[in-house]
Amino acid sequence: MKCVAVVVLLSLLSRGRSAPLSSCESLIKPITISKDEMLGKWLYIGGSSNLPGSRSLGHLMTSVWLDVTATAENNILSLFQTHRIHGKCSSLIYNVTFENNAMVIEQPFHLKEVYLPTDCADCLVAHEEITSGEDTFTSVMLFSKTNNVSPAALEMFRNQVECFQMPSAIMMNPNAEICPDDISPSEGLSALNSLFEAKMGHRVARILDSLFDMFVN
Predict the structure, then answer these.
(1) Helix residue spans in the chain (DSSP H)
(2) How far apart are CA 70 and CA 98, in angstroms?
(3) Under 8 Å CB-to-CB from 55, ≥6 apart: which residues?
(4) pTM score over 0.90
(5) Cα 100 to the chain's mean position, in Å?
(6) Residue 108, preceding peptide bond in cis (omega within 30° of 0)
(7) Which residues of 157-173 are buried (b: 16+ CB within 10 A; e: fewer)?
(8) What residues contact 75, with CB distance under 8 A and at least 6 apart?
(9) 197 pLDDT exceeds 70?
(10) Which residue has the higher pLDDT, 9 or 153?
(11) Which residues pair with 142 in a beta bridge?
């Protein structure tokens, strides 16, 4: 569950010192991961995306968690996603295919998510590419079973973001209240697809992203 505009360019991508090129190959090489390792409740720690509106949303959103469960079909997983924005909780539910160490959605858009190395035993680093029509969006995200992620693991994740030449990661407040698990979900894929297809909305979202990065960072 992923282009930030050239408008106000200097505020667009606030990046720190780039990770050494020599280390990037190992940092962004996908790992082998089993379906069982995907299961359970994952807290969203932070991430970076070039999906229009993602920067604005990242500044407004205070918490996100996912619950990944198995289904009767061997290669199908169910994702229940809950997020809090301005104190209001909402949730989505959708199914994905998990095979060959990757999570895949074929319709109504194409998504492929692979997983990257991390020094944190309870963490998951996801590199996601979404194709909708002629547009392609990329995200790099860090999840954990707990709120307590070591500074070393966070620094490694930031270096991975830099290796992909993505905007600086927006991190969640580890002390923020998360949403309960009894919220009735909406069907997630149709809602996400309408976001990807909203071309006019993309232009507005890019401007908002730039403004948020200018005034919030």
Answers:
(1) 9-12, 21-27, 35-38, 54-60, 151-163, 188-197, 199-216
(2) 10
(3) 4, 49, 167, 170, 208, 209, 210, 212, 213
(4) no
(5) 20
(6) yes
(7) bbbbbbbbebbbbbbbe
(8) 35, 97, 98, 99
(9) no
(10) 153
(11) 46, 125
